[in-house]
Amino acid sequence: MNFCVLDKVNVALSDMIIKFTFTVILALSQVPFCLMLPRDPLDKPNIIILVADDMGYGDLSSYGHPTQESGPIDRMALEGMRFTQWYSPESVCTPSRGATLTGRLPVRVGLYGPYERVFIPHMPTGLPKNEITIAEALKDVGYATGMNGKWHLGINEFRFDDGNHLPAHHGFDEVGTIAPFTHHARCDEEKKIVSSPEKSYCFFYSNDTIIQQPAAHHNITKTLVYETKAFIYNHENDPFFYMLNFLHLHDSLFAGPEFQASSKRGEYGDNLNEMSWAVGEVLDTLRKLEIEKNTLVLFVSDHGGHIEICSDGGKNSPFRGSKETTWEGGFRVPAIAWWPSMIEGATVSRDIVSSLDILAPPWI
Ligand SMILES: *[C@@H]1O[C@H](CO)[C@@H](O)[C@H](O)[C@H]1NC(C)=O
Ligand SMILES: *[C@@H]1O[C@H](CO)[C@@H](O)[C@H](O)[C@H]1NC(C)=O
């Protein structure tokens, strides 16, 4: 046989083998999802923490508010467990959020800013790097991690623009749109409180990059929901940890157009309805992907409502005191845990719990 012909046959054969192998690999790469057995609910459950900003104990209809509309958050309580003695670690944002993420008493880890005990944007300080966050702990055991929304645990460390304290530097691998500081009265777009939003307080980042200053809030809740859903879709087969930190219900109030005038309670109720819609969207996504039995969702407020600002500031009833105070109203918060298959619906827990307990670090 002519060698040239043989060569051609060989080339054709190897070409066929490559094509065949490639087809098999391609086919196999499409099937594992069908072959995969459902994960046991206790096998690395997904964890989602949804944090409301400045929401008081008495703000939800499920916690006894007389005029607030009942919505998806209240439905979450009906399907899960509602806590009546859940305490925030502090009554202002920075120390409370830092303690929630690390399980450490804020005073022990330097989480006290100079202005109302919180960090302010230009301060080169943040959550100490040697503290282990929930995200870092879960990442170590194979979880995908992500977050968006409010941070308030520092921005820069050494220079004015190094971004060394942003969430990507504390264990969150996928960071969406964030308010590294907080929503604030000085960000008032309605011009009820300030004549225009103050740039040095009002800005959004996407991960480590500043994307908007001053920040526009009309569709921020939609954006946060969109990003959270995208994260869940991308990780439906992984164990994952996600934290959605709402900018609601801190003043100034800012409901998107769909929720304006949606509440008979007024603007605060509109804001709460928008946040409640967002919570419903997250739970519906889990159900749609049929991963709700593998997912613990916790909804909690960072501390009590800011009742001094009257109708803009929520209700801590039946307790006395407010955000920034050591009264019960500053610390006792609404908290709901949802995990179909593991948590029985419509249960009420009267146990004393703190957000400090979310992470019970063995290293402390
Ligand atoms: C987010 O920022 C961190 C730190 O700068 C970087 O390592 C990471 O790749 C960034 N993620 C994305 C999706 O850009
Ligand atoms: C929010 O509004 C901005 C324009 O102001 C737009 O670019 C963005 O796509 C909107 N996001 C969502 C999720 O609708």
Automatic annotation (TrEMBL):
Pfam families, A to Z: Sulfatase
Residues in Sulfatase N-terminal domain copies: 45-359
GO molecular function: arylsulfatase activity
Signal peptide positions on this chain: none
Cofactor: Ca(2+)
Annotated InterPro entries: Alkaline_phosphatase_core_sf (IPR017850), Sulfatase (IPR050738), Sulfatase_N (IPR000917)
Protein family per UniProt: Belongs to the sulfatase family.
Protein name: Putative arylsulfatase-like
